[in-house]
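Usage

Read records sequentially. Each one opens with the input sequence:
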Amino acid sequence: MTDLSAFPIAKRWPAKHPERLQLYSATTPNGVKASIALEEIGLPYEPHYVDIGKNESWTPEFLSLNPNGKIPAIIDPDGPGGKPIGLFESGAILLYLADKTGKLIPADPARRYETIQWVFFQMAAIGPIFGQVGFFHKFAGREIADKRPLERYRDESRRLIGVLETRLKGRKWIMDDDYTIADVSMLGWVRNLIGFYEARELVGFDDFPTVAEWLERGLSRPAVKRGLTIPARG
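and closes with the structure output:
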């Protein structure tokens, strides 16, 4: 039987199937990246719901695996060389899963690096900026009388959507006909921006029809539909 006792997180969230990849997450834009990728790939895994509303990601057990205190995180009992590996940061997890299985990433080296650059684009730009729009438009930041921060992030969000619009012109997916971790990394964020964050009108999303078509195409994938609800709330 696979032994995960070296990982304190496995004590707080015990594994029923320790031989499977363990996912510690919630259904946030960053969290669903991993569950969507796992559903697309078909790799057996066991999801564990981390209640960020109860600050469970800041418990010692979670921090022992992810010192950044953010979801998602994983333990793969069958890591490199057959040894268990724990990973945090969603972009690194996506790349790991793609490399492990040879799926969701082109085999050609040049196209592989091109895919990775778009994952980094999400990690360094879309994720942080869209998150700030959510804070200043939907959450506590909306109470701030000075609207300049909101305007700043609104304008930058619009610019970033424009980058996607330009990239997707004439393409089915970010990497042409290849659906990759680049798409997986962004679908949840764009969905949240116009849905959960209620910022569709704010950022003028309807001015970007190619992005809208890409989003609809992505959200219609069965694996994406499943991944958006995994892990189920505890």
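Summary fields computed downstream for this record:
- Strands lie at 21-25, 45-49, 73-76, 85-88.
- The chain has ten helices and four strands.
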